[in-house]
Amino acid sequence: MRTERHMRSHFIAALVVLLAALFLRVSPIEFALLALSILFVLFAELINTAVEALVDLASPGFHPLAKTAKDTAAGAVLVAACGAGIMGYLILATYILPLYGRVLTMFGTQSDLGTVVAVLVVTIVVIMIKSLSGKGTPLQGGSPSGHAAVAFSIATAVSLNTGNPLISLLSFALATMVSHSRLLMRIHTMREVIFGSLVGAVVTILVLLVFKSL
Known about the structure:
The chain has 214 residues and is mainly alpha-helical. Helices cover 83% and strands 0% of the residues. The protein has helices at residues 5-24, 28-58, 64-107, 112-133, 146-162, 165-184, 190-213. The chain is flat. The N and C termini lie far apart (53 Å).
């Protein structure tokens, strides 16, 4: 926990999943499967850390085989995490998706015009904020991230228009990937990406609520 950032992330994810399982009152068998999945991910991360330490001890300098050993150990953690993610989805989705669907129905409305207006308003708001901050250009850099804002605006519109929880989650996953690419390309900071995501989602919700009330 003190030295490995990924282990801290695994523990936080485990805490969230276990609290959700308790709140949703899953069955004992489902809870046991979730707990085993979490323990398997933690076990894989411990093995990965041990492999990295041994490789560094045996080969302080760069060596292709050392790189292969570390990459393979990290890949094992990824495989374990994917398995845990699938297990968590299969168990928790039956409890969470119906609740999420009812929330989407409360706010959502099928409005093609409202969706177009929402995306345009988000774009205008982003450009205005960038012009006031004096950082970046309308299409690149600065705060907030325009790509993140538009991506989350579209994901929010898709979620509220369809009312389908699975489609909503996939849309937000795609929007997150678009936003993350701005970090990987070092065009925006995390704060700028989060700010853009919030602008896109909040403005879209407000616009669609206005169209729903008309």
